[in-house]
Write a structure and sequence with these properties.
By secondary structure, the protein is mainly alpha-helical.
């Protein structure tokens, strides 16, 4: 399911179908539902009109923690907004904060993204930090702060490995090239 990190719905669908098949065969219904969650994410990532009612009902009945995976928050942006208002910490809090920021006006986005970036750095979550830095740098560049945007991306890239194949790394490098500054 790491294909979801690369934003590759085609591979997510393939892996999710395989997980669902195996889970059914071995009566592992939590994993079957988790595979269905990935399928909904992949389909919604490609087509935003997909309904989640049945899946969400099944997940609630199983007692799945809504903060267990940022996939849930990508499917339902209301989840990410609620998650960022809660007091307890979570491994994916920085990403949930980034997802929440996308629903806000630009000035409020910046504030929440800055908090999310601080949180990612505290957690030493370099992948989340890069993704957040990309979102924040995009806002900075749009506001004419090109030098600050490019510096932010370069700092975040410095902390991740040299995997040029990772979607977030490629996106960040491309943003630096577009900014130019």
């Amino acid at each position: 399911m790491t294909a979801a990190l690369d934003r590759n719905p085609r591979w997510v669908i393939k892996a999710a179908n395989w997980l669902i098949h195996l889970a059914k065969r071995h009566d592992l219904y939590f994993w079957k539902t988790y595979g269905e969650l990935f399928l909904v994410w992949a389909k919604q990532f490609s087509h935003t009109d997909v309904s989640q009612t049945t899946l969400f009902s099944s997940l609630r009945a199983m007692g799945l923690d809504w903060q267990y995976s940022p996939l849930l928050s990508e499917i339902d942006t209301g989840l990410s907004l609620r998650a960022t208002r809660q007091d307890h910490e979570n491994w994916c809090t920085p990403e949930l904060m980034r997802l929440s920021a996308t629903q806000l006006p630009p000035q409020k986005q910046r504030l929440l993204l800055e908090k999310a970036l601080d949180k990612a750095r505290q957690q030493q979550a370099h992948g989340w930090a890069l993704r957040i830095a990309y979102s924040l740098a995009t806002l900075q560049a749009e506001a004419g702060e090109k030098w600050a945007a490019k510096q932010l991306i370069q700092d975040a890239l410095h902390d991740v490995d040299d995997s040029d194949n990772a979607t977030d790394v490629r996106s960040a490098i491309a943003l630096c090239a577009r900014i130019g500054a």
